[in-house]
Amino acid sequence: MPFAGPLAVLAALAAPPRDSVPQMRVRVDSSRHEVVVLAGPFRVPPSPPDMDHMMMMDGSDHDMDMNMPLTPVQTFDWPVTGWMHGFKVELVDGEGRVLPQRLMHHLIAVNFSRRQFIYPAVERLMGVGEESDHDVNIPKSIGVPLTPGQEIGVYVMWNNQTGAELPAVYYQLTLRWLPRNLLPRPIDALPIYMDTDLRIGGSNTFAVPPGRFNKAFEFTPPVSGHLLGVSGHLHDHGVLVRLEDAETGKVLVTVPARRDSAGKVLGMPRRLLAVRGEGIRLKAGHRYRVVGVYDNTTADTLFGVMAHMVGLFAPDDLKRWPAINPADSSYQKDIADLRGKGP
Ligand SMILES: [Cu+2]
Fold it and tell me: Could you report the per-residue pLDDT of 319-328, keeping only the tens digit for each?
């Protein structure tokens, strides 16, 4: 019963008054090498029906397009030196009973202390969606470097299809880390996000007319390195996301959706490309293209559709990773959007 300890403390707060602010408690389990974040209680109203929507490591904010309750971003200081190499997300009620994962449309953790790869926005550290795996580990040869004091923010979008309000919901986010003295030293890899249609601080959705449809975005990496793993996110009728060399047209990697015969997206695979430093070479200053492919077999245009690829990228030199530029207008929009979330 991993929840027994912290929840005994919080039990008195079950069924909170409507104006109460949910708490976030962070503890470090040094023997298990886990940072455990427990937050709640959240009062979760019922969502409108048929908000079925597949998410996977969502790195942006299409919240405004969806009528689902959102928690504010709650932050904590990362407490240890090491490499994050896995996570687990669990939901419980005020009595410690496990709640279904589908109650949560997505949970996103951001790192306010580091910039993204191709965007001046802040790093999207991890995320889980309704259809994605809620317990993920990567090989111990790879990890996301984190240092004490980096500001981590977490927020949740609920999708409560029970038809009734849930008075007290808690989430527990367990972040697993590798100690700094681990040998051989893990490869530094950063989580990257490549969207086909992102407006930073705004939406990343587009419309898909009937038939075959591609959405594409070109970018130039700020630093060279290797792509070690990829996954992605598509809505129903999505076929695949792929990464291309925009200068030669060569397809570098493809993430095909798992679909049923009607085109409903059942999930997106995680593809590990390398466990050490090889993988797919991406060069600074070179042009690449991320492409989302849809096959809309309905008679109508689909609105609010998304397509993006996420990955783990090992830069040749972590010290040359671009710094956050507080004066950048896109960065400011991203921060305003993140800090402005809430019910
Ligand atoms: Cu989406």
Answer: 999 999 999 9
In this chain, the answer to whether the domains covering 4-179 and 188-315 adopt an identical fold is yes
Say if strands 187-188 and 142-146 run parallel, antiparallel, or are unpaired. parallel
CA of 3 relative to ligand 1 center, distance in Å:
30
Range 4-179: architecture per CATH: Sandwich (2.60)
Q: Which of 121-125, 167-171, 199-203, 338-342 has the lowest mean pLDDT?
A: 338-342
Ligand 1 (single-atom ion) residues, CB below 5 Å: 306
- pLDDT of the residue at 3: 41
Structure tokens at 76: 């904590």
Q: Tell which residue, 311, 217, 208, has the closest CA to residue 263.
A: 208
Cα distance between residue 125 and residue 302, in whole Å: 29
User: Is the ipTM above a cut-off of 0.90?
Assistant: yes
Instruction: Count CB neighbours of 217 within 10 A.
Output: 19
Question: Rounded distance, CA 122 to CA 113, Å?
Answer: 7
CA distance 95 to 44: 16
CA 13–ligand 1 middle distance (angstroms): 33
CATH numeric code, 188-315: 2.60.120.230
Q: What is the domain partition of the chain in residue ranges?
A: 4-179, 188-315
